[in-house]
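Quick one:
INPUT:
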């Protein structure tokens, strides 16, 4: 006779609804019969311990112990951090995006726990206050703080190298960045603001050049003290109130000036005047950014009209969204480290070797099966 686990069935319903999944949707994700999920939620049956782990860590993004509580916990929903977004923008999110937001919250909780006895001497979001400064000035100060000058930026040679370099210095400045694949391809990424450990979450499905912009745009959100979402389609800005729209435009301007500063852009304007639209890609490659960033800077300088900028940006985004999704494959462990960031993975292992928690607890922080930990560690650069 199989012993039923003494879980609270109401917790399964609460956690499922919290991530916007129907019974059928959860059943599809778990490859189970919907009737089986219904039996769990009615209390007539209970999942096995293995299935309960899958529910907790893979599908519903809550600690396993929560299933044994007498009532659903009164915890803040991380989605509420995006209350400044228009309602219809939130309604566009699929259950997958809600799940990834809660995964990001779990990572943020892990960062706070892992950093408990360490801390970081540099916190860019405390050391830089935008105040009344205009976005180009905030961008200039942030670049100096992070320590990558234009000469170094132009040696990156690829957007992938650029992303890794910017990610590293941002992490060194107190903001961890995580990646994962989001089914909602229009969501380029988001940030969760926090007084101690804000984090950035980037959609790995996007082109690397787009990921670079997302990373810096979300840095802007954090410097301005807000949680935010980078959407590939900016039409939602028109549905924001004036205050929120102005703030979002400041983050866009910050990112554009950060990645392509004014100090050398006069030369790029001349290049554009000679080569036209074809020159934009070469300028973008020079700075390891997307074409949209360069086009935005040309618009800022009055080289293209607002209509032209909006039409070309929309065209490029439509072309991008029509591309096939990135195929899965490659090395699983390298992918996991790319998603976690080697800094976070290293921090987790250091805590483990200091005896602060068990292999199972380490695995939960890293969102990986405990039996895969030894192999994962072999791919880390200590």
């Amino acid at each position: 006779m199989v012993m039923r686990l003494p879980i609270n069935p109401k917790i399964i319903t609460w956690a499922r609804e919290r991530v916007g999944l129907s019974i059928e949707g959860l059943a599809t994700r778990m490859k189970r019969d919907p009737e089986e999920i219904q039996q769990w939620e009615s209390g007539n049956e209970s999942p096995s311990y293995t299935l309960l782990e899958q529910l907790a860590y893979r599908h519903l993004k809550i600690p396993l112990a929560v299933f044994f509580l007498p009532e659903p916990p009164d915890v803040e929903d991380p989605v509420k951090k995006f209350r400044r977004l228009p309602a219809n923008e939130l309604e566009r999110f699929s259950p997958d995006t809600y799940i990834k937001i809660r995964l990001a919250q779990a990572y943020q909780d892990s960062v706070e726990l892992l950093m408990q006895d360490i801390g970081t001497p540099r916190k860019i979001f405390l050391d830089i206050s935008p105040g009344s400064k205009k976005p180009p000035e905030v961008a200039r100060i942030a670049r100096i703080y992070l320590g990558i000058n234009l000469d170094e930026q132009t040696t990156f040679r690829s957007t992938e190298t650029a992303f890794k370099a910017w990610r590293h210095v941002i992490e060194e400045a107190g903001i961890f960045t995580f990646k994962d694949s989001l089914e909602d391809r229009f969501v380029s990424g988001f940030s969760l603001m926090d007084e101690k450990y804000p984090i950035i979450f980037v959609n790995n499905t996007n082109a690397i050049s787009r990921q670079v912009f997302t990373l810096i745009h979300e840095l802007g959100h954090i410097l301005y003290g807000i949680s935010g979402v980078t959407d590939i389609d900016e039409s939602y800005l028109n549905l924001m109130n004036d205050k929120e729209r102005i703030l979002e435009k400041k983050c866009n301007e910050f990112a554009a000036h950060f990645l392509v500063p004014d100090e050398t852009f006069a030369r790029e304007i001349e290049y554009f005047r000679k080569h036209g639209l074809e020159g934009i890609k070469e300028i973008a490659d020079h700075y390891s950014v997307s074409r949209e960033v360069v086009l935005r800077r040309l618009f800022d300088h009055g080289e293209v009209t607002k209509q032209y900028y909006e039409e070309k940006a929309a065209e490029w985004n439509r072309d991008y969204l029509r591309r096939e999704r990135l195929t899965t494959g490659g090395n699983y462990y390298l992918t996991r480290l790319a998603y976690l960031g080697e800094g976070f993975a290293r921090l987790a292992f250091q805590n483990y070797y200091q005896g602060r928690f068990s292999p199972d607890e380490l695995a939960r922080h890293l969102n990986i099966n405990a039996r895969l930990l030894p192999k994962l560690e072999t791919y880390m650069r200590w």
